[in-house]
Amino acid sequence: MLIGVPKEIKNHEYRIGLTPAGARELVQHGHQVIVQNDGGKSIGLTNDLYEKAGARIVDTAEEIFAKAEMIIKVKEPQAVECQMLREGQILYTYLHLAPDPEQTAGLVKSGCTAIAYETVTDRKGGLPLLAPMSEVAGRMSIQAGAHALERAQGGSGVLLGGVPGVKPANVMVIGGGVVGINAARMAMGMNARVTILDRSLDRLKYLDELYGDRITTLYSTADAIEETLRYADLVIGAVLIPGAAAPKLVTRAQLALMKPGSVLVDVAIDQGGCFETSKATTHQNPTYEVDGIIHYCVANMPGGVARTSTFALTNATLPFAVQLANKGAKRALLDDTHLLNGLNVHAGQITYEAVARDLGYTYVPAAKALG
Q1: Which residue of the set 100, 233, 270, 358 is catalytic?
Q2: What is the CATH number of the domain that holds 114?
Q3: pTM of this prediction?
Q4: Quick one: CA dihedral 240, 297, 300, 356, positive or negative?
Q5: Fewest CB within a 10 Å sphere: which of 63, 72, 238, 300?
């Protein structure tokens, strides 16, 4: 199979879909890999490294999309990229379709087979291709929030860990999954006071057993959210419903409960955000203010630490990429129910139920669409 790796074009996105080591693995399985010129240069992955791994460098994304049977990316295809996709071509990347009707329409029109990293599953019920970026985003959310709390950034001027004689900041984490636990670990490491809210009692029990009195765990209700907002200096939105739009858990009216200069970091922004006042931002202009509350809603947070993120992502995505290349999309998807769960669009059909429901498409089960 001919596999193409284009340079990412989303604002301040420096990750690349495949490391040189990943390219070498695919080449050793008998496949061809083409990589766009200087696609990974900004994070030290030079053309020379890809060529030594057996890949070929091409000048333009247009050439990659025109020739490759499978496109491996990081971020969802931008409008110009959707227009270059074609029927039968495999697109393997993050998609986050539920809050993005324009991208969804573009993929449907293209006729491609679009596999979303964020809905591929594993035997434990986890999301193995989303997890590494969730780990990165969870950890970044605290350093981003800490920076936004600085007075020069519009924040309240609170130091997360405090100092002797001055109390530390209160950090509220909504969601106890991969993002939430990584955010909590970072916040605890900076000596902040951390409260995690979740609707899974099993998860709350696990977190309590893991961290004891270093954190407070609360069952997530509207009352619990409102009460915790009153004293929170930093709020991390870490809620995920796989493949679906994120629920709005903090309304604009509830911002009035918060202290002026407090910060909201919405890690769920890729799925539409879990705060009513959230709107996607970029690393170039990461924050904005609503009713005295600072919002950080960067839609590609892990892109800020692109080298770490690229290696972590390839570690997770490569085994499935090899399956797709070795067997072809149809056989690989039908042979592996966990990879099949990643199929969101095939031949103009929406094959992921939550996306179809949220965007008003007819849902066609993935196995039926492939059949």
Answers
A1: 270
A2: 3.40.50.720
A3: 0.90
A4: positive
A5: 63
